[in-house]
User: Fold this.
Amino acid sequence: MGQKSQKEAMEEALKQFEQFVESIKQATGLPIVPDQKTGAALWVDQRELRLKYTISVEKIKPFYDGLMDGKLMATKCSKCGTIYFPPQSFCPTCRKSEMQWMELSREGELLTFTVINIKPASFAHYDDYIVGIARLKEGINVTAWVREKDPKRLKVGMRVRIEVVKRQPEGYLTYEIVPVND
Amino acid sequence: MVRNVAIVGVGHSKFGVRHDVSFPELAWESVSQALDDAGLEQKDIEYFIVSNAGGWSSEPLPAVVVGEYCGLTPKGTARVEAACASGSSAIKLAHDIIASGQADIVLALGIEKMNESPTPTVVEFIGRAGNYFWEFQNFGLTFPGYYALYATAYMHKYGATEEDLCRVAVKNHYYGSYNPKAQFPKKITLEECMKSRYVAWPLKLLDSSPITDGSAAAILASEDVARKLTDTPVWIRAIGHASDTSNLSKRDNFLSLRAAVEAAHMAYRKAGVDPSNPIKYFDVAEVHDCFTIAEILAYEDLGFAKRGEGVNLIREEQTYVGGPIQVNLSGGLKAKGHPIAATGVGMAVELTKQLRQEVEKERQAVIERGWALSHNIGGTGHYAYVNIYSLDKPRG
Ligand SMILES: [Zn+2]
Assistant:
């Protein structure tokens, strides 16, 4: 993808555009600029909305306690035995909340994977990353990043394990799929 | 009592980067065409449904903005969302309102103006469409990324290649080149597709539908009204619908979209189509080719091909004009463009025109049976709608 990271390229393009808008606004008194391709008149929003949510994890706190101990936790319905990952605090089948917490084996096989080459804005600061889905011994699937840069070194069906890792640069605990080379 | 419902008027804007019009102006393009086509006035519309996913565009209440601009107030309205299948959800609700006798004339409008936001923001919004907390928050999946997970699994299992996927793009661009409403009315070669850069390995830029602005409108009417308005009503024969888990990890496999299979079975059952050989009932289909792999999955999920053999339909060019089933002669999402919530209504418009034999001659399907099918998927198999349209009246 060249020397410039996607984030640098994005920020540079945005800065140039904003300078362009500012110069036109100063000259005309209006934030109306011509579209670069067609020349159509575009009003550039003078308001900005930033979205950052707060999401309740109160009922699944043991999952995060597990990450702190390097474990991947799921819930299991005491009544019907269904394992939930992502963990759920209610079983929709039994309509009960009699759930037990259980540690997952963290061993399984890779079902599929992709490389995210064009990244969303909030992931633009990362290098290209591989996302995979692994099926654990318990029969549940886990979506996560795969610790590998080259998709050609991965194979559908290969053995993998799950490891708890600290995601940088944000510095928070999450989990990753790690190929097992045997 | 369930009443017959027909499409009596359709409109379709030019799809593309539409910086030349505002949101309501874009809506008006297709609403005005649909009113003209049906020979109706705004006062005749009893209810209107606006399908819009939004987020990337500035108006949070699209239905009322459109209603005011198009002169549809004070008629009742609501905005609906089913991701990329929003448009088909609007058609379904409009159909059900009429079938149940609550109204005689309902307008369904699909509209999306994605280019009001910069591309990285749009990529972010679509990437969040799945399960935001468990998939996006930590792992930053994108729309092509989700379908790439299906592509990797399918290619591994059945030996399909990146060239095979590109063959879908070549076909859809070929027909798109004859569609003046398409975002990319130009042909591409297999080589060009293969040389395009990866967006989510193994999917490339030319495997992908673009970011699109566009609108499409369909006016639906009860049988009594339809008979008075037109000699060529296009009947809604059946609507099949289903959903699937928000987390992709909750799915059994990545070789098929379960919801599409369910929706197809429901539609076939309602219309009396033999699910073991559905091709013989239809002349033409519009399927949800947001990515090339999705069209191949659609062939199999709809029963046009056996499991693992969908790829043969495109290798053998069986879905071109004159083939046993003619697919995506509009150019599909791939070349016509994919304005998320307008796409489903756009499919209804296209199939209405195909059955009336009103499209450009190079991309007109051979119409012998008078039946058509749309397959519209929301998200990554999260929502599915399979609609069956016919020139002959369903019952009564
Ligand atoms: Zn249970």
User: Anything to note?
Assistant: Residues 5-118+211-229 of chain B form a domain with the Peroxisomal Thiolase; Chain A, domain 1 fold (CATH 3.40.47.10). Chain B touches chain A through 45 residues (CB under 8 Å). The pocket of zinc ion is lined by residues A 77, 79-80, 82, 91, 93-94 (CB under 6 Å).
